[in-house]
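Researcher: Good morning. I'm working through a list of sequences from a screen, and I'd like to move beyond sequence-only analysis. For each chain I'm collecting a predicted structure so we can compare shapes side by side. This is the next one on the list. No need for commentary yet; just the structure.
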Amino acid sequence: KKNFLHTLKHPLSHDAILLTVSQYVGSGLGLLMNIIAARLLGPTEFGIAALVISYPTLLWSAVSVKSMSVTTRYIANFRAIEKKEEIKCICKLGYSLDFFLSVGAFILIGLTGKWIATHIYHMPSTTWLILAYAAFFPFISLKGTSRAILSSWYKFRWISILQIVEASSTPSNSSAASDVYKRQAVGRAIIGLLSGSVATWILYKKGIGFWGNSSIKKIKSLRREIASFFGWNYLGITLNGIIEQVPLIFLGQLRGPEAA
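Model: Good morning. Structure tokens for this chain:
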């Protein structure tokens, strides 16, 4: 019992509890927002909004490595041995990969979005909605490496705040699917920008400096190791995206947006 109470008094235990609570609160808020949106929109418009989001999300999962887990590992390691330049290099690598892959996803969606909207969804009018949602990917991409930085410096309160704010993006009192998806896309983009700003501020505060001034050549010796970690991470994220989004897309094709 004493050991348990001693563990609870440890600062990291407080942060872990806070992070756990914020995840549950965020999940509850997300469910509540979906319920409110479904009530406001009705089955057809809500289904259209879900389909508009699903295809860009699937493409993003297919091309993205979602660098957070990999960059967290290396940032924490380099922080422990006080290698500031290497920390900046890993941050630059993570931000750069996520950004350029998000741009690549947007280009792919631009090339295929019209065909998906016409032949899969049977709703050509949703083409611009799909493209507009994907246009926010570069801003959303900032979130991964930013969360890695926050985690490595144990800034779990910031992570908790960002999680709750992201989940509490409330739908407008509109009955149009376009308003729901735009609000979600803008909300996630703002969280990405806010996460990037907070993470950059923390790096300055800790004496690391701006990650953009670094050269990735400093971690050239770790190239194969990092590539291996990114490869396995990519496989996991891609499979997860396929499992989550593909059934929804086919359901929309076979049964219409009401079923989706």
